[in-house]
Amino acid sequence: MARDGNHRLHLLLILEELCNLIHIVCAMAILFITAVCEVEKDNYWLTVARSPIPYQAQLDHLNRLVHSEVDCHEQLRVSRRTFMILCTMVRNVGLRDSKHVVLEEKVAMFLNVVGHDLKNRNIKFAFLRSGQTVSRYFNDVLRAVIRLHGTLLKAPEPITIDSQDDQWKWFQVNVSYLSFTKIGGN
């Protein structure tokens, strides 16, 4: 029995020493990696080339807007599917990508202005574009949406007097209460 107790104690001491050695090795590795990173940090920043796509920041912003359904709905006030359908419809009407701005970004700027009642300067800041660019593309998309009015806007249906729909019963006018007499005058 005493021998088993000594054997367990001996194993525990060996495990404790092994853990201490692992801690020391990890600490040395962390110090080494930190030192290498400090030395290479200056070299790294000096050798970084510019992005091959000059408008990568704008594309990244657009991708963040339409990346998830929640973000798209919160920022553009439409679902991702609706956004893509609207982009396709606007493209079919004749609006195209320009040299520096893709059509989806133009539509996203338009929906941001309309959906949040934002000013030109807010969109300029968010999309990293000039105020003139924002204004030009907002008006281009607006003209395209106006061309789509037959598809996008539903013509109102007149409500007949004998309509049985409960939602209109509050708007019925009783003609007998109307009088064509002159009110308050000589």
Provide a descriptive summary of the structure in words.
By secondary structure, this protein is mainly alpha-helical. The chain is built from eight helices and no strands. The chain has helices at residues 2-47, 56-66, 69-76, 80-93, 103-116, 120-127, 131-147, 149-152. The longest helix is centred in the N-terminal third of the chain and has 46 residues, at 2-47. It is elongated, with a radius of gyration of 34 Å.
SS field, number of helical segments:
8
Please summarize the sheet with the most strands.
Answer: none
Strand content: under 5%
* Classification by helices and strands: mainly alpha
Unreliable spans are 43-50
What is the structure about, briefly put?
By secondary structure, the protein is mainly α. The protein contains eight helices and no strands.
